[in-house]
Design brief:
The complex is a heterotrimer of chains A (about 130), B (about 500) and C (about 475). Chain A has four helices and nine strands. Chain A is α+β, with helices and mostly antiparallel strands and about 130 residues long. Chain A is globular. Chain B is about 35% helix and about 10% strand. Chain B has helices at about 10-15, 55-65, 85-95, 95-100, 110-130, 140-155, 175-180, 200-205, 230-240, 260, 335-370, 390-395, 400-410, 440-455, 460-465, 475-480, and strands spanning about 130-135, 165-170, 185-190, 210-215, 240-245, 265-270, 290, 305, 310-315, 385-390, 415-420, 425-430. The chains are: A alpha+beta (about 130), B alpha/beta (about 500), C alpha/beta (about 475). Chains in contact: A-B, A-C, B-C. Chains B and C meet through α2, α3, α4, α5 and α6 of B and α1, α2, α3, α4 and α5 of C.
Chain lengths: ~130, ~500, ~475
C-alpha cells in the first residue's frame, strides 16, 4: 500500500501537499520498473510548469522516463542530493528521493489527483 | 581499484615504462618545429603509453581472447544477421590498389574502384527493384537519415511545407524515430495489429496532409512478412506521403520481394548484415540507399557516373543542384563496399536466393524446436528470425529472459537479441542465418530447452549466470552513476603493473 | 552457395521436421502480386575467378604516383603489427559489446582508445567514435545547439569543405549554420577573420550556440584558436575545435585553449586511405557536456566478484532507449578503426608520434622551398605544420600534366571550391614522414619543366608553355 498522506498521478508521480506548496517525486513502483536510477535531470528554480508538462527526466541503466508535473506551479527548489546519489530515488522514493518543491498555481487542480486507494488499484492492474 | 582477474589484461597505461618502445620512425633534427610559433605548440608531451612492440602484440592478442566472435561460435542475434564474414573479402579490401587509393585522387587514377562502385550500385538496384543507389551513407542509421532528408527535400520541392510527421509502427527499431527527430520531424507511433503486422486502419487514421513519410521494416522486427504491405503502400501514396523501407531484414527476401517494385520509394541496406561485411566489434558498416524516380534527383552528391566512352567518374560539385548535399566526407566507406561487392559476386542471383531460402528454413526449424519449451507469440511461419517469449517461465520460476541469455553464455553461445522489439514481454529475437549447420541449430535449441528445465529445479544458478566467462555480471549502475570514462594514471609517474 | 553449411540430406531433414515438402510454403505470405520478378545478376563466381576479377579491378587504380595529396586524408607509415592484429577474427568478426561478459576485449580496447584520444585532445570525455571527421563535426555542431538551447552555429570557412557541407545537410531541420569569412590578405590571410566573427556573434536576436574552427585549418594554416574561443565564450557560445590527431603530438591540444568540444578525423592514425573510408570520427568534450555527447561510451566498473571490467555506459542517451528523444540516431561506432588507431598509437608511442609530426614538418619545409624555387610560392604567409597552398597559374591543367609525369601534386583547390575565385590558381600540397627528398625533387623538376614549356622526356617539344606572362609570378 502506498503512503496514504500523498496523492498520485497515473504517470506514477506522487505529490505531498502542504498549503499552497507541494513536494513531488516518483513512486516506489515507478522506481522499481526503471531499475537502478543513475541520473535525474531537474529544472532550475523559478521555472513555471503547466499541469502534465514535462519537468525533467529520470534515467536508469536501461531505461529513461519523462517526469510530468502533477499540477501547475513554480519550481521553488530541487533536491541537490540526487546529483551525487541518484539511488535515493530507489531507496527512499517518498523521502530522501524527493525531486522538486513547487508553489501551486491553481489549488483546484488537486481534484484530478488519485488518492492512495485509487493508485494502488491502478498498479494492481499492471 | 579492484583485482585484475587471471585472464584479464592490464591496460596499456599499466604496461607503460619510460623508454620502452620506439625505433619505428627516424628522428627528425632538433629544430624541426622551431618555425612554429610557441603559442601554437604543445607545452608538455601527451602522456601516452611507452610500450615495445612485443608487449603491444601480447596485449592485443590476449585481449582478443576475451571476445566472443562469429569466428568463435554461433551468434543468433535477431535483426543483426551474424553470418560468416568471408576471408576472401578481407584479402580483397587489402589489395594495395584498393587500400592505398586517396579519395580525392583524380578519376583517371581511380578507374578500378569507380568501376567496382558503379557495378555495386547496379547490383543493389537490381536486388531492391530501385532505380538508383547511393553508396555514400556510412551506416544503416546514416542511410535512414539520408532517406528521410531526401523525402523532406522532395516535399519542399513541391511547395508542400506542412508535412512534419513521420509514422512508424511500435515494433520499429529505435533508429527510425531517432532519425525522424534528427531531420526535424515528429514521430507518430502506430500500435501493431494482434497478428504482429501493421494495423493498416490505424495507419490510415493517422495518415494525412501532415504526413511526410512512413518508415516500415519488412519483414517486420518480429521476423514476419507484412502481408498487408500492398494496402499500406496504397494508403501512404493516397495521402501524398512517401514510404521508406528499413532494409535490416533483407536477408529473408532476396530474390523473393523487391521493395522498389512493390511500391516503396526509398530503402536502405545494411551491408554489414545482409552482405557479410564484418561488424568489427561495433563498426564500421555501410548503409547504401536505393530510390525510385521520385527521389532520384535528391540523392547525395557525388554520384558515380559512367561516361559514354566507358570510363567512370565522380559527379562534380554543382552538377546536380537538387541533391541534398553530403552526409559525410568523400564518396563512402569504400573499404566496406569492396567486401560487399566480393560477397555479391561470389553469390550471384541464384546464390542470393539460396541465402534467403536457407535463412528462412533455418529460422523455422529453430522456431519449431525452441517452441517446445518457450512461447512463440506469433505462431505462423516466420522469415529469417522469430520471437520467443519466456513470460510463462518468469511467472512460474522468477527466471527472466535476461537470466536465460546470461546462462546461454555458459553453454558456449552468444545470447540472442533480448527485449526487442519492445512489444513482446520477456522476448528473445533469434536469427540463425544461412551459414549455420543443423548440428549447431540443434545444439542451440538443446541449450535453450535445458535452461528452461533448469529454471524449474535450480533458478538461482541461472539468475547468477554467467559462471564461466572471463568476467561475470557487471555493476552497470555504478558505471553510470560514477562514470570512469578515461584512464588518468599517467602524470609522469609509473603506475605499477599487476603482472 | 559459397559458404553454405548443408551436407546432402540436411535441408530435407529440416523440411521433414517442419512437415513441408519445400521452402515455398514458408514464403506463401508474400502476396502474389508483390512477388519478385527474377534476380537479374551475373552468375556466381568461384573464388579463384572472383579473386582474379578483384585483382584486375584493383590493378586499374594507379598506385605508383609520388603523392603530395592530403586535404583531410594523410599517408603515414603504419607498422604491420596493426593490420596483423586487426586480422584476428576475435576482433573483426565480433559484434557490438552488448553482452559485456564475453566482450571484454572490445570493451577494454575502446576504453583505452577513449583514454588515448582524451590524452591527445586534453579533454575529459571521448565518445567511442563516429563515422568520420565530417559526421563528428556535424554531431559536435548539433551538441552545441542542444547544450545551449540556441539554434545558430558559426563555422569558419577554413574548415574542410566536406565537413561544412555535412554540417549544412545535418542542419536542414530548422537550425541555422553560417560561415565565418577568412582574412583575405596580410599576415593572417587564409585564417578565420576575428573581426568578422565578433560581428556575427553580436547579433542578439540570433544568439550563437557554437563556433567551429579547424587546427590546422583546411589550408594547413595555424589558427588563433585561443582568441576564437574567447570570443565565442564571451557571447555565451560553445567552442568546437576541428583537429588532426597526429598534429596533436606537437600542437597545443583543444583542452588547453578552451575548446568545449573537439572533433576530427582519425584516419591518419594507422588507417589506410581506401578511397574514402571506413574512417574514424573523433569526438571529445569537457565533462560538463558528457550527457550531450552522442554515440557509445565505455566506462570502467567491477563485476560481482570484484574484478575490474569495462561496460558500455550512459546508454540511456542512445537511440534504442531514447528513440525519438535520442541525442542522435547513431547505432554503429567505428570500433575496428578505433582499435587500429589505438594499436598505432601504442606501437609508435608518444615519441614516435611526435617524430611523425616533426618529420612531416621538415619535409614540408623542404617542399615549400623546392616549389618556391621553381616559381610556385605559397599562397598564404602564415605558419603551417605540414600542409600548405601554393600559387600556380592554370593549376588544374598543371595538375593534370604533373599526373602524366607521375606526380600527384596535391589537390587543385578549384576542384573542391569551384566558386572561390581566390583559389582558382592554387594547389594544396602536403608532406609527411613517408615523403622522400627524391620525390620532392622530382615534383619540383617536373613543375619546372611544365612551367617552362618543356615536354616530358621522350615527348616532342612544342607542347605549349604554361608559364604565365612576365609580372604575374616573381622569383623565377
Amino acid at each position: 500500500m502506498v503512503p496514504t498522506d500523498l496523492r498520485y498521478t497515473k504517470d506514477h508521480e506522487w505529490i505531498r501537499l502542504d498549503g499552497d506548496e507541494a513536494t513531488v517525486g516518483i513512486t516506489e513502483y515507478a522506481a522499481g520498473q526503471l531499475g537502478d536510477i543513475v541520473f535525474v535531470e531537474l529544472p532550475d528554480a523559478g521555472r513555471k510548469l503547466g499541469q502534465h508538462a514535462t519537468f525533467g527526466v529520470v534515467e536508469s541503466v536501461k531505461a529513461v522516463s519523462d517526469l510530468f508535473a502533477p499540477v501547475s506551479g513554480e519550481v521553488l527548489a530541487t533536491n541537490d542530493a540526487l546529483t551525487g546519489s541518484p539511488e535515493l530515488v530507489n531507496g527512499e522514493p517518498y523521502g530522501g528521493g524527493w525531486m522538486i518543491r513547487i508553489r501551486l498555481e491553481d489549488p483546484g487542480q488537486t481534484d484530478d489527483l488519485l488518492d492512495a486507494a485509487a493508485y494502488d488499484a491502478l498498479i494492481a492492474e499492471g | 581499484m579492484s583485482v585484475v582477474g587471471e585472464r584479464l589484461q592490464p591496460t596499456l597505461f599499466e604496461r607503460s615504462r619510460p623508454g620502452r618502445g620506439g625505433d619505428k620512425i627516424p628522428h627528425p633534427p632538433k629544430d624541426a618545429l622551431d618555425r612554429l610559433p610557441a603559442a601554437a605548440r604543445r607545452k608538455t608531451a601527451p602522456a601516452l603509453p611507452e610500450i615495445n612492440e612485443p608487449e603491444v602484440v601480447r596485449h592485443y592478442v590476449n585481449l582478443s581472447q576475451l571476445n566472443y566472435a562469429i569466428d568463435t561460435g554461433f551468434y543468433p542475434l535477431g535483426s543483426c544477421t551474424m553470418k560468416f564474414n568471408p576471408k576472401l573479402n578481407e584479402w580483397a579490401a587489402r589489395l594495395p590498389g584498393f587500400a592505398s587509393l586517396h579519395p580525392l585522387a583524380p578519376d583517371e587514377v581511380a578507374q578500378g574502384t569507380l568501376q567496382l562502385l558503379w557495378e555495386l550500385e547496379g547490383i543493389l538496384a537490381e536486388i531492391s527493384g530501385m532505380k538508383a543507389v547511393t553508396l555514400q551513407p556510412a551506416a544503416g542509421a546514416q542511410g535512414e537519415l539520408c532517406g528521410i532528408l531526401m523525402i523532406r527535400a522532395y516535399h519542399r520541392s513541391r511547395g508542400d511545407t506542412e508535412r512534419d510527421e513521420v509514422l512508424v509502427p511500435d515494433s520499429s527499431h529505435g533508429t527510425n524515430p531517432a532519425t525522424a527527430t534528427m531531420a526535424g520531424f515528429r514521430t507518430i507511433t502506430i500500435p501493431s495489429a494482434a497478428d504482429g503486422g501493421v494495423d493498416v486502419d490505424a495507419f490510415r487514421a493517422a495518415l494525412g496532409p501532415r504526413t511526410a513519410a512512413v518508415m516500415i521494416t519488412n519483414p517486420s522486427t518480429l521476423g514476419l512478412f507484412e502481408r498487408r504491405i500492398g494496402d499500406l503502400l496504397d494508403a501512404v501514396h493516397e495521402a501524398g506521403a512517401l514510404a521508406y523501407m528499413d532494409g535490416a531484414n533483407l536477408n529473408a527476401i532476396l530474390g523473393r520481394f523487391k521493395p522498389g517494385e512493390a511500391g516503396f520509394d526509398v530503402m536502405h541496406f545494411n551491408v554489414h548484415k545482409t552482405f557479410s561485411t564484418p561488424h568489427g566489434g561495433g563498426g564500421p558498416g555501410a548503409g547504401p540507399v536505393g530510390v525510385g524516380d521520385k527521389l532520384l534527383p535528391f540523392l547525395p552528391s557525388p554520384r558515380v557516373l559512367k561516361a559514354a566512352d566507358g570510363s567512370f567518374r565522380l559527379e562534380r560539385p554543382h552538377e546536380r543542384p537538387s541533391s541534398i548535399g553530403r552526409l559525410r566526407s568523400f564518396v563512402g566507406n569504400t573499404g566496406v563496399l569492396v567486401r560487399a561487392y566480393a560477397y555479391l559476386r561470389a553469390h550471384g542471383g541464384s546464390g542470393l536466393r539460396q541465402v534467403s531460402d536457407d535463412a528462412v528454413l533455418a529460422a523455422n526449424y529453430l522456431k519449431h524446436r525452441v517452441g517446445t519449451a518457450y512461447e512463440i507469440p506469433y505462431d505462423r511461419p516466420c522469415k529469417h528470425e522469430f520471437v520467443a517469449s519466456a513470460a510463462a517461465i518468469k511467472r512460474k520460476t522468477g527466471v527472466r529472459t535476461l537470466d536465460i541469455a546470461k546462462r546461454l553464455i555458459d553453454h558456449g553461445f552468444h545470447p540472442p537479441t533480448i527485449y526487442f522489439p519492445l512489444i513482446v514481454e520477456e522476448g528473445m529475437l533469434i536469427e540463425p542465418t544461412e551459414t549455420e549447420s543443423v548440428e549447431t541449430l540443434d545444439a542451440f535449441a538443446d541449450a535453450l530447452i535445458a535452461i528452461a528445465a533448469e529454471a524449474e529445479t535450480d533458478p538461482d544458478t541461472i539468475r547468477s549466470a554467467p559462471h564461466t566467462s572471463p568476467v561475470r555480471r557487471l555493476d552497470e549502475a555504478l558505471a553510470a552513476r560514477h562514470p570512469n570514462l578515461r584512464w588518468r594514471g599517467m602524470v609522469g609517474v609509473e603506475t605499477p603493473c599487476p603482472d | 552457395m559459397p559458404y553454405g553449411p548443408h551436407a546432402a540430406g540436411d535441408r530435407e531433414r529440416m523440411l521433414e521436421v517442419l512437415g513441408i515438402p519445400d521452402v515455398e510454403a514458408l514464403f506463401d505470405d508474400i502476396p502474389e502480386a508483390l512477388r519478385a520478378s527474377r534476380l537479374d545478376l551475373p552468375e556466381p563466381q568461384p573464388e579463384l575467378e572472383l579473386a582474379a576479377r578483384l585483382q584486375a579491378l584493383a590493378a586499374r587504380n594507379r598506385t605508383d604516383l609520388a603523392s603530395f595529396l592530403g586535404a583531410g586524408v594523410y599517408r603515414h607509415w603504419t607498422p604491420p603489427a596493426v593490420d596483423q592484429l586487426l586480422l584476428r577474427g576475435e576482433w573483426y568478426t565480433a559484434y557490438t559489446p552488448y553482452q559485456p561478459e564475453i566482450s571484454q576485449g572490445t570493451l577494454q580496447s575502446i576504453y583505452e582508445y577513449e583514454s588515448l584520444i582524451g590524452e591527445l585532445m586534453d579533454l575529459d570525455v571521448v565518445s567511442a567514435s563516429h563515422y568520420d571527421g565530417a559526421a563528428a563535426t556535424a554531431e559536435a555542431a548539433l551538441m552545441t545547439c542542444r547544450a545551449t538551447r540556441r539554434e545558430r552555429v558559426l563555422v569558419s570557412r577554413a574548415v574542410h569543405p566536406h565537413y561544412r557541407q555535412t554540417v549544412a545537410a545535418y542542419f536542414g531541420g530548422g537550425l541555422e549554420v553560417e560561415e565565418i569569412p577568412l582574412v583575405s590578405d596580410g599576415e593572417s590571410a587564409g585564417t578565420t577573420d576575428l573581426a568578422a566573427l565578433e560581428r556575427l556573434l553580436a547579433d542578439s536576436e540570433r544568439p550563437v550556440a557554437g563556433v567551429l574552427a579547424g587546427q590546422p585549418n583546411f589550408f594547413g594554416l595555424l589558427e588563433p584558436m585561443a582568441e576564437i574561443g574567447r570570443l565565442a565564450h564571451a557571447a555565451g557560445a560553445l567552442f568546437v575545435a576541428v583537429v588532426e590527431p597526429v598534429s596533436l603530438a606537437v600542437l597545443a591540444p583543444p583542452g588547453s585553449y578552451g575548446a568545449d568540444i573537439a572533433a576530427g578525423e582519425g584516419q591518419p592514425l594507422g588507417i589506410a586511405p581506401q578511397y574514402g573510408g571506413p574512417y574514424l570520427g573523433l569526438l571529445a568534450s569537457t565533462d560538463a557536456l558528457v550527457r550531450q555527447i552522442p554515440g557509445r561510451l565505455v566506462g570502467m566498473t567491477t563485476d560481482v566478484d570484484g574484478r575490474r571490467a569495462f561496460v558500455m555506459t550512459l546508454r540511456a542517451r542512445e537511440q534504442d532507449i531514447r528513440r525519438d528523444k535520442a541525442a542522435s540516431n547513431i547505432c554503429t561506432n567505428q570500433a575496428l578503426l578505433a582499435l587500429a588507431a589505438s594499436i598505432y598509437v601504442a606501437t609508435l608511442g608518444p615519441h614516435g608520434l611526435r617524430d611523425v609530426a616533426a618529420l612531416g614538418a621538415v619535409r614540408a619545409a623542404e617542399l615549400e622551398h623546392a616549389l618556391a624555387a621553381v616559381g610556385a610560392p605559397r599562397l598564404h604567409p602564415g605558419p603551417y605544420l605540414n600542409e600548405f597552398a601554393v600559387r600556380v597559374p592554370g593549376a588544374r591543367q598543371v595538375h593534370r600534366r604533373l599526373l602524366d609525369r607521375g606526380v600527384l601534386a596535391g589537390l587543385a583547390l578549384a576542384d573542391i571550391e569551384p566558386d572561390d575565385e581566390t583559389l582558382a590558381d592554387a594547389l594544396l600540397v602536403c608532406a609527411t614522414e613517408v615523403t622522400t627528398s627524391d620525390e620532392i625533387a622530382a615534383f619540383a623538376a617536373a613543375l619546372d619543366d611544365i612551367l617552362a614549356g618543356r615536354p616530358p622526356v621522350g615527348v616532342e617539344a612544342g607542347a605549349g608553355a604554361e608559364r604565365p606572362t612576365a609580372g604575374a609570378v616573381s622569383g623565377r
